[in-house]
Every structure is written in C-alpha cells, then in structure tokens.
Amino acid sequence: MIGAGGAGLRAAVAATERGLSVGVVTKSLLGKAHTVMAEGGIAASLGNVDPEDGWQTHFKDTMKSGKFINNWRMAEIFAKEAPDRVYELEQWGALFNRTPEGKISQRPFGAHTYRRLCHVGDRTGLELIRTMQEKVLATDTKVYMETTVTRLFQNDEGRVVGALAYTRETGKFIHFKAKAVVMATGGWGRIFKVTSNSWEGTGDGVMLAYHAGAELVDMEMMQFHPTGMVWPPGVRGLLVTEGVRGEGGLLKNSEGDRYMGNYDEERMELSSRDVVARANYTEVKEGRGSPHGGVYLDITHLGYDKIIQKLPTMHEQFLKLADIDISKEPMEVFPTVHYTMGGIKIDPETAASNVPGLFAAGEVAGGLHGANRLGGNSLSDLLVFGRRAGEGAAEYVKSNGYSTDIPESAVEEEKKRMLDPLQKQGEGENPYHLQQELQEVMMEHANLMRTGDSLKEGLGKVLALKDRLPNMKASGSTLFNPGWHAVQDVNNLVTISEVILRTALERTERRGAQWRLDFDGPDDDLGRVNFIVKEDAQGEVGIEKRDIPPMPEHLRRLFDENQDMSGGEKTGKESQF
Amino acid sequence: MSDRTNITDIAEMAHAPAYNDDAANTGETRTLQIFRGDGEGGSLVPYEIELIEGMVVLDAVLKIQAEQAGDLAVRWNCKAAHCGSCSAEINGKPKLLCKSRVEEYDGQEIKVMPLQAFPVVKDLVSDVSWNYGVSAQIQPFNPGKEQAPFTMYEEDVERLYEPKKCIECFMCQDVCHVLRTHHKHPEFAGPRFFVRTQWLEMHPMDENNRLQFLKEGRGGVQYCNITKCCSEVCPVDIHITDNSIIPLKERVADEYYDPAKWLMRKIRGNRRNGSANGNGGTRASHKRAEIRTNG
Ligand SMILES: Cc1cc2nc3c(=O)[nH]c(=O)nc-3n(C[C@H](O)[C@H](O)[C@H](O)COP(=O)(O)OP(=O)(O)OC[C@H]3O[C@@H](n4cnc5c(N)ncnc54)[C@H](O)[C@@H]3O)c2cc1C
Ligand code: SF4
Ligand code: SF4
Ligand code: FES
C-alpha cells in the first residue's frame, strides 16, 4: 500500500484480513495524512436524522453534483456501501456525535438532499484516521513511515512487481518487492499557490501510475473549496470547513448583502461547492470584496456556546492564527484549491487500474466524483474503495503466480536518477523557486474560471519550466533533506500541471469545476464523455475522448429526466460568467 | 453566446484576484536561532528573515528553508494545529511551530530546537517512532460480540471526546520528566498513552481490561507523580492529569489494593473483564455505571 491516509489504511486492513503480508509506505508519520485534516464529516445515508434518506438519494446527489460524467457504477457502489463502512468504523472504536435516540448524528452539507454527514465536532478526519491507524497497528502489517516511493517496477509482461523508495531520515533506498501495489497517495493541490493541502499533496501516486502506463480520467477537474482563509498571508488557503455553512454560516459581501440568492436561490450557502466558489470569486472580482480580498462568512448568530460545541477547531484556528473571534466577528474567506476529482481510472468492482498489479483508491483515483465532489463524500470514498482495493489486490495476488524479480540494473538506474541532483556541480535551479513559479502559473492560468487563450499561455509557461527541470540541484546530503525531496516533487507537479492544462483545453464547456468563460454553458456531447490521459510511446501526454457507457435502467429510473439530467448549471447570475 | 460579455472582460475574469502580499511585509527583520545538527551534535545557527504580518514560527522556518537553507529539516503537514507534526521546542518549551506567532516573542530571542525526550535525527526533527511502538502494545478497542450500530447516548460518551482530541504531537511525552530526565522509555508509556487508555477503558462498549498493562505491563502509571507538566503543554487542552491519569490511577488502586478484588484475581487468574460478564446489554450498562461513579 502506498499511502497511509484513510484509503491506504483501509486497503491494508482488507488485504491483511485476506491473509496477505502487507506493508504500508507513507511520506509522513502515521496519522498525519490529509485525512487527519478533514473536518466536516463523512457522508453516508444512514437516515438517522432524516429517515427518508437512502442510498438512492445519495447516489442521485453524487451524480448530479458530478454533472453526470461520474462513473455511475462507482457512485452506485459507493452510495450503497458507505453506511456499512461508517458502522464498521464505530465497531473499531470511532466515536461520532449522537442523536437524542443514541444513534450517530448527521449534519447538513452543501447539495446533500438530507442531513447526511456523520461527524464528531469538526475533527471527523482525525477520528477516522486514528481509528484506522490503531486498527492497523494491531495487525501484522508493517508500516514504513517517512519513506517516499519514487518509482514502480514492472516485469516483462508489464505487471507491477514492486517499487523503489528512499527513507527521508537517511536517504537509504529500499527496494520493495510486491505482487500487487495499491496506490493511495491522495491529491495534488500543491501545484497551486493557494491550497488547503500540505506538502504531501504533490501527486506522486498519479505520476507513478502514469509512468507505468495507467489511464487517468477527468484530470481537468480540480475542486476549489469556496472558503479558505485569506489573512494573514501565512494561513492563506487554509480550509474553513463547510461545516460552518452546514451549521448556518452566511456569506456576505462588503456591502453587507447575502448574495448567494443571486447564484442559487434555492440552496443558498449550501449550494454545491463549484457554485459557491464561483459566487465568492465573482463578488470579489466585481469589487465587493473585503479588505484582504475575500468575502465574509458570518456565524456569529450561532452564539459562543454553540460555536464552541460544534466548531471548536475553527474557533481556535481563527483566534490563534488570525486574531479573530468568530463568535463576535465574521471570517474573511476566498476559494482555495482543495481536492482533485480526477485521477487513476479504476474498475469499480476491484479498484484495479488498467496496469496489471496496480490498484488505486481514495483521492488519487478518479471517476466517482465526476465534475464536482460533494463535501463529505471523500471520507466515505476512502473506506468504500480502500476496502475494495485491498480485496481486489488480495484476489489478484492469490490467482496469479509470477516472480517479483527485476534486473538489478533497473534498480541501480533509478537510484542514480534520484541521486543526480545532489551530485550536480556548479550553479543549478533551486527546486523551491521552481515550485513557486509553477504555482504562480497555475494560479494565473488554470484557476476556477478558465479561457482557452489563458490555458494555452499557461501551457507554454509550464513547458518552459519543464525544460528547466534537469537543472535542479540540491545541496547537502541525503540525511533528512527537504531540498532534495523537493526536486522529486517538482518533477511530478510540472507533468501533472501539463496534463491539467491540456485536458482543460479539451473540455470546451462549463461543467462543474471546469468553467470555460469562452463557452456559454454545458455541451451535451461533452457531457457524454470523459477525457482519458495516458502516456504515449514517445513519453508525451496522450488524450483520448471516451464515451461514458449509458446508465442502466435501474439507475436511470431514479432521475426525473427533465429536471435532473441537464448536467451543467445555468441559474441566475452564473450564466454571465 | 448571447449573454457573453466582451472578451477583455472575460480575460480579466479568468485572472484570479491578485493578492498584495507586500502589504503584509512589516519592513522589519527578525533573527531566529535554529538548531542545525544531528544525533551526534550541532549548534544554534542564526538566520535573519523579513517579518511578515501574522507570521508563525513555522512560516519563518519554511521561509528560511526556501531561501537560505534548502536542507533544513522540519516536519509539518496541516499548518493549522490539527495534525501534530510540527512539534519542536521554542526557548526550551515544547510548542507547535504552526501555532506559535513570531510576535509572541517580541523582545525575546527565538531559539528553535527539536524535541529533547527522543533521539535527534536532524535539525528540528526527532525520532518519535518509539511512540508508535508503545501504541501497538495497547490492547485495541474490543466490543466483543456487540455489533455496530451501537446505541450510545451523548451522556454516555461525552467524556470520551476530550481524550479523543489528541493530535499525537508528543509534546506531553517530551515534557514529562519520567521520559525526559529519567529515560524510563522501556517501562513507562507516557501521558499520551494514558490519554488513549482512558478512552478505551471508559468506552461503554469496550470489553478489554488494560489495568494490568498500566500497573504491571509497560504502562508504568505508578511512575507518574502528577506534576501536571503534560497538561500544561497539550495544544488541544486535554486535562491529561486530571481527566486521564488520575481516574486511571484510581481504577488501578481499586483493582489492585481492594483486598476482595485482589483475591478474585488470584483465584480467576488474569481473566479479562468481558468474558466474566453476562450479555452485552448488562455489560454496556455496567461500564456506564463505572463512568458515572468516576465522573
Ligand atoms: C483541510 C481538509 C479538510 C477536508 N475535509 C473533508 C471533510 O470534511 N469530508 C470529506 O469527506 N473530505 C474532506 N477532505 C478531503 C479528504 O480529507 C481527502 O480527500 C482524503 O483524506 C484523502 O485521503 P487519501 O487516503 O486518498 O489520501 P491522503 O490522506 O492524502 O494520504 C495520502 C498518503 O499517501 C502518502 N504518499 C503520498 N505520496 C507518497 C509517496 N511518493 N510515497 C509514499 N507515500 C506517499 C502520504 O504520505 C499519505 O500517507 C478534506 C481535505 C483537506 C485537505
Ligand atoms: S503528570 Fe505524570 S505524566 Fe504528566 S508530566 Fe507529570 S509525571 Fe509525567
Ligand atoms: S495528549 Fe495533548 S500533548 Fe499529548 S500528544 Fe496528545 S495532543 Fe499532544
Ligand atoms: S503542522 Fe499540523 S500541527 Fe502544526
């Protein structure tokens, strides 16, 4: 398992239970992955608060919000299995807030029809990852902390049979021999300057898979969370949980208007993330922003006691880092890059990629969320498909016999490539600066409003950066050396950026997170396809437009064709921009 | 394309609002002394940086890393005091670097060192892996035959929210003299793991008994002499001593120094709690009762 977020840990438990010998590799310490930062909750149609809820509604909400380019089979499996995964967490010791009847409590969240997010205050991700971590520690699974994988190895038949990694502490290389690999490395928010992601979000896994021949899907779809912090500069992009709006937070502009009515009259602040993000962006662009370039998010009416009970982490975060008491003053917020809907294309049943022996789950996998992810759907995604990936891998290992040996020369070659930036003489490029330049380019050209011209210009700049990659140089030794580690990150980030820009150029419409200002609205033909990316024989980015198979009758029946299935959104003010 | 605005507006709209970061430059500079070295030794090295409004010490360290010392080792993830990665010592006290504002130290030096209760790896990074080993030795949650969904009321579980907040920053471990000064790592689990044991022991559905671990096993709760230093440094305000350690000590005392219980233990051997109990329902209420008497 590469990755120790919710997905990797759940996969490890599944594979261990099936008798496999499992190792988990993670770049950070155990329990520090992005999963720990999730605040709002985990979506599952338990129906504890709204008994009308069921998998069908959850499925429908997920598809609608994904603007129907989601993989419907993944969404069906997901909606059906999410409740079991939540109960399983409870079985393993996780503790959620309770209803008066003694059941798991559920809160409302953007574009979920019913109150559906199981939560514990605003630290749900911590509860999830700690539960999974403790579950894994109690098994024989070996955990390799602070170890970074840099390459997958394949045998002559193209099967993945292992990986090379280095330990951050000493820089020592480890050659893992594995009959199957589950990629659970999370997303790539760090190609943008303003992001809720940590240093880990560099998309290593998607690039490892891509270079091994895996197909990627929906790479143009980046989620901008509507509410990131804006001030002071050090915290810009830090997430302000959607739970604030779930608990009744109101968005206002500098004129004191509660403007969401102009963008989505019905759902207001609890509209889907793409809509709210664009609304916030538009208000600021049109000159109704706050002094630091944000809009106001106001929860003061909830009162101190309720805030401390329901949003303690947010209260503390603002008080400590921004000198703002959110029970007395509104917060200043602006969209921040948050989540990657796209990723490795997988088989919904087994989470297998098209590369034999390579599985994927969690944020690094694509398909479930389509053009926009609903809040809370990620945490349940991790568990549903993490489990399936672990089981899929176990099945595969048991039914296939082959050696995991590869020529020693391949290992040596990779080590040499890794050590190169440390051995370079003379002047070289500073990887941190290159990363900053890339982040600026992506902020400018691939933001939440896009145009063809700007995307093309961005692509030109990224390709120019790509030419400079071989000049990167790191000083110091292999002992815990972040500069050396950053070289590797930047290599990945540049290629991912190229993929995003190229696919965003292909999708010439407005759909979910992909909002092309130079096109008017959704394009029905594009609503029936995904863009599939695969490295071609020359090592260049190959893009294929692939039809989405039609939805089977039992799922189609769930929708009211006229109202539900139009795909894009053209309500109110939105259509102008 | 009827409602399309003209092209210059579109191009302008696609341009994210530019932030004026310069407005945040205070024009002042600040010097931080940062430990550079490894397990063998090292020294404090001064770095001067431009001071930016609202800056936390982690921002300063990362700025130094990006501009002056690419190989400066430091851990961080969330930048929001949620993950517990960035713990180190500022002027000798354990702190989350992402939660410590530079301006808090106006008029003082800022000396940043790695956690001292664990072996230093490099610069601001210590080897905390020992903690995960201890964690693995604690009997995990075990609800026996009981199957989720559980019926548990807010009043049954509200005491558990506090210990469950722990972000594993290990600062309590760092400050506890039993580890820091007396190096009892092989016999003493440390406050972090008393916090964990507390919620496990008090969970209404849990059947395991960890008192033996605390007293005779590697828990070593008896080494704690309730100095409360751990509670003082906890970044998420867990009252480690009052709400975790003291109740556990009481339970150990009950179990070990109550003559009747002592005799029972001799007779029954070290059988676990749950196996001696009746069905799930009684068990849950039995545990609940325990919570209440302790609360
Ligand atoms: C601030 C924040 C709040 C959020 N809130 C919510 C919420 O309320 N509800 C919700 O559903 N979702 C939420 N999300 C999204 C959700 O938390 C993430 O999408 C999810 O946790 C991703 O989990 P994962 O297991 O796929 O990957 P991650 O948790 O990102 O873990 C990735 C793992 O892969 C490892 N890794 C990466 N590269 C390598 C490599 N090269 N070698 C070895 N290991 C590697 C990392 O070390 C890490 O262990 C939030 C996200 C953030 C950032
Ligand atoms: S109260 Fe006990 S555990 Fe806490 S620091 Fe003091 S001796 Fe250590
Ligand atoms: S109990 Fe507090 S101080 Fe100790 S590890 Fe947990 S969060 Fe840190
Ligand atoms: S970086 Fe997560 S606690 Fe400081």
- Please give the domain count of chain A: 3
Shape of chain A: globular
CATH class of the largest domain in chain A: Alpha Beta
Helix content of chain B: 25-40%
Overall residue-averaged pLDDT value of chain A: 94
The number of strands of chain B is 7
Which CATH class of the largest domain in chain B applies here?
Answer: Mainly Alpha
Report how far the terminal alpha carbons of chain B are from each other: 68 Å
Instruction: State the separation between the terminal residues of chain A, measured CA to CA.
Output: 43 Å
Considering residues with a beta carbon less than 8 A from a beta carbon on another chain, report the largest interface and each chain's count.
A-B, 95 and 80 residues
Rough outline of chain B: globular
Low-confidence segments of chain B, given as residue ranges, are 1-7, 269-295
- Gyration radius of chain B, in Å: 25 Å
Count up the domains of chain B: 2
Low-confidence stretches of chain A: 568-577
* Average pLDDT level of chain B: 86
Identify every distinct bound molecule in the structure, by name, code or SMILES: flavin-adenine dinucleotide, iron/sulfur cluster, FE2/S2 (inorganic) cluster
Task: Write structural notes for this entry.
The complex is a heterodimer of chains A (577) and B (295). Chain A has 577 residues and is an alpha+beta fold. Chain A is built from 16 helices and 21 strands. Chain A has three domains: 6-221 and 341-399, FAD/NAD(P)-binding domain (3-Layer(bba) Sandwich); 227-336, Succinate dehydrogenase/fumarate reductase flavoprotein, catalytic domain (Flavocytochrome C3, Chain A, domain 1); 417-508, Up-down Bundle (Methane Monooxygenase Hydroxylase, Chain G, domain 1), CATH 1.20.58.100. Chain A has helices at residues 6-17, 55-65, 72-91, 124-137, 204-211, 243-246, 273-285, 304-310, 312-322, 377-399, 408-423, 431-445, 452-468, 482-506, 553-556, 561-564, and strands spanning 23-25, 42-43, 106-107, 117-118, 142-144, 147-154, 160-167, 173-177, 181-183, 216-217, 222-229, 250-252, 295-298, 331-340, 343-345, 358-360, 365-366, 510-511, 514-515, 529-535, 541-547. Chain A has a five-stranded mixed sheet with strand order 17-15-10-20-21, covered by helices on one side. In chain A, strands 11-14-13-12 form a four-stranded antiparallel sheet, covered by helices on one side. A three-stranded antiparallel sheet of chain A has the order 2-4-3. In chain A, strand 7 (160-167) and strand 8 form a beta hairpin. Mean pLDDT of chain A is 94; it is low at 568-577. Chain B is α+β, with helices and mostly antiparallel strands. Helices cover 38% and strands 14% of the residues of chain B. In chain B, the strands form two sheets. Chain B has a five-stranded mixed sheet. In chain B, strand 3 and strand 4 (93-96) form a beta hairpin. Chain B is globular. Bound molecules: flavin-adenine dinucleotide, iron/sulfur cluster (2 copies) and FE2/S2 (inorganic) cluster. The site of flavin-adenine dinucleotide (FAD) has 43 residues of chain A, from helix 1, helix 4, strand 6, helix 5 and helix 10. One iron/sulfur cluster binds at residues 84, 166-172, 191-192, 195, 233-236, 238, 240 of chain B.
